[in-house]
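Most newcomers find our protein records easier to grasp once they have seen one. Nothing more is needed to start thinking about how sequence determines fold. Here is such a record, shown just as it appears in the course material:
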Amino acid sequence: MDSAKKDDVFAIEALRDWATRLYRAYGFDERDADRIVDSLFFAELHGIASHGLQRIGMYDMLIGNPNGGVDVNAKAEVVRETPVSAVVDGHHAMGQITSAMAMELAINKARTSGIGIVTVRESNHFGAAGYYTNMAAEAGLLGFASTNTGPIVLPLYATHPFLGTNPIAFSMPAKPHPFFFDAATSIVSHGKIEVCKKEGRQLPEAWMVDGHYQPIWDPKQVPARPGLDVDGGMLPVGGMSEETGGHKGYGFSILAEIFCGILSQGNTSSEVDGLGIRHGVGHCFAAIDPGLFGDPDVIIDRFSDYLEQIRRVPAAPGHRVYVHGDKEEIAYQAITAEGVVRLDPETVASMRSVGDRMGVAFR
């Protein structure tokens, strides 16, 4: 593991063991460390590198930060509850731990009442939103998850950020694998910009604009931190104008704020500082039992057939028609069959630096 070449490969189980020991070294108990690592590897093994092991460096900045961030000893608390809903105060615990607890609560409510929806306030970055919707799908339920983030996205035609990347995810059981949609309401997730920067690539499209509303192509010109006073920022889904549909992504982002910041009575993205170091982010999780609407097996079989019909729609030359979740399943099967993951040099260097400082050598 001394080499940090771009094509370095690392055994999945060895990496998982190292990551678990790392989070135990921070002070998390075994169960919580396993949950954090499970979230990271869900992303990594499904080909979502932006939310995989490259996040270890960011979490290191948040854990134990004197200005706030993640409190290793904090425990999330249910502060309001009905048979179908709850509000959770994360008390600045690790986002994955609070979020898994909230989704489990939503799932339990759906099993007894048909639906469960849980909002969360004062939390932290929770990883890939689809990790939590997948929890619901594995329980035979429809799953929804969303989060707000620090302000880094521009309202349409604005020159300063006010919104977060605010992803929305949804999963539903299907055959041969669940339908799995997970997307930022910004034109891409911020993690994809980080990946371009690490790999030394220009941004392939107009993902960001500067303070004059002109596209940024060099990821090195991307502001170092989110903030209301930063010139320029990321664009919403749809891009720079109403003609390309920028108002749609802008609206989707506000929907995420409603569920995550307003209903939770927590912070909106405009009230979160940077990566959430001083003010916690909000989430929302929901689980729905398809049995509310009829025989769940019949519903899922019909949905599976519907997705298969989409896959058979004629494709443009050189392309294939996928439905959401196909690419992630293909990546998962390929990566787990090979038993290794590939990490870029900057991520390897970051993991090695964090591990050395925490006394968990990355070797």
Summary: The longest helix spans residues 95-113.
